[in-house]
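Obj.: predict assembly geometry.
Materials: sequence records (below).
Method: joint structure prediction, all chains together.
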Amino acid sequence: MAKSKTTFICSNCAHITTKWAGQCESCGAWNTLSEQTALASGPAASTSLGPARGRIVELSDLGSEDAPPPRHHAGIAELDRVLGGGLVTGSATLVGGDPGIGKSTLLLQAAASFAKAGLKTVYISGEEARAQVRMRAQRLGLGHAPVQLGAETNLRDILTTLDEEAPDLAIIDSVQTMWLDTVGSAPGSVAQVRACAHELTAFAKRRGISIILVGHVTKEGQIAGPRVVEHMVDTVLYFEGERGHQFRILRAVKNRFGPADEIGVFEMTGAGLDQVANPSALFLSQRGTPAPGSVVFSGIEGTRPVLVEFQALVAPSPHAQARRSVVGWDGGRLAMILAVLEARCAIPFAGLDVYLNVAGGMKVSEPAADLAVAVALLSAREDTALPAECVVFGELSLSGALRPVSQGENRLKEATKLGFTSAIVPPGGKLSGEHGVRLMPMADLATVVGEVFGAG
Ligand code: TYD
Ligand code: MG
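Observations (raw structure tokens):
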């Protein structure tokens, strides 16, 4: 017996609850719950399946081999790598990011590349008219690419068109503008976004057509964020960057067909997005003479080492409560490192404003950057610059001890390539010495304070 049931879904984290509340009990976001009605009926809702038997599901050994999924290469190396080595046939990919960050530009360039590589490619824009997209394509020098362009928001019509045209790749820009006539709510609502993403993903699997969805992220969670779509698709890429910077980073946060955490680096120019093949050189290019507070961290993003510069500034605070401001790194982690410096090394930061910044608009989330942050803070506070050719990496424990991190050898090799000759590192870590960098292993943070800054 069919029974209508009302539930509420959070647009931020897709948590479902039976009672409305101002704040989501799962992620803590405010005003993100909205109503959705679902029919609780059929076998899933009843306790017994009844007499009807299903068909037998095919089972196989864990060891049996399947051919790797067929992939298509865009010929844009940064994009192909983030996808895990090219676009998988019949996969669904979500590209999320802030409005205006460059998603449409990236996907138009990708569409042109895939089309030139021989894929039948359809680009559906729900946000811009065809003339607008065409104008942008011409400005990007892609006017001759054999991409089929459509401007539509009615998903039923789009699916019929795709069914008829049978392309290899369909790009839907954006999922928030799409609507299905079977769903009562407005485009952009959680119910519509979920239903549209579900239809498109199911269609991709059924027809073996690769689908790329664009999704806008809004901090306020006013429109359904792509979060609700994340678990439906195979691959989730986020396009990020600071508004004032020209660098853009495409980051895989989920990939059923390749490593997550892989990044591709691009530069927004007057003629679209350019690939950045050597991000370390780019992130360090604007470094002048070594200044107090500046430290180069040798990080790993996905499968690739990337060198970035941390900049710290420590100044007496005119406020009753000193400021802590972070860009590109986790604020909670900064508080922890300040506490370790204070408790284990007797270096107080009370009454001092602390600013920490990752140069170039890069975001770092590795705990391996702990030591680099601590050294940047020390360097700023002691007003002492590190030698120009020194890199730093290592994880910090609450006791002040330094822990080895993964891929030490790769981090050092990348540093050598860029002309660095010494490194402050944790003890141990099985380094072969092939990298040619002079190592300064430090057991704990107090040793760093004493040996590098001659204080403590
Ligand atoms: P867009 O791709 O429309 O962003 P999104 O689809 O994520 O909303 O990019 C918009 C911004 O990119 C806009 O501010 C202008 C800038 N831009 C360039 O700087 N160069 C270019 O060649 C293009 C096409 C856009
Ligand atoms: Mg756009």
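Conclusions so far: The first helix runs from residue 42 to 45.
To do: check interface contacts against the pulldown list.
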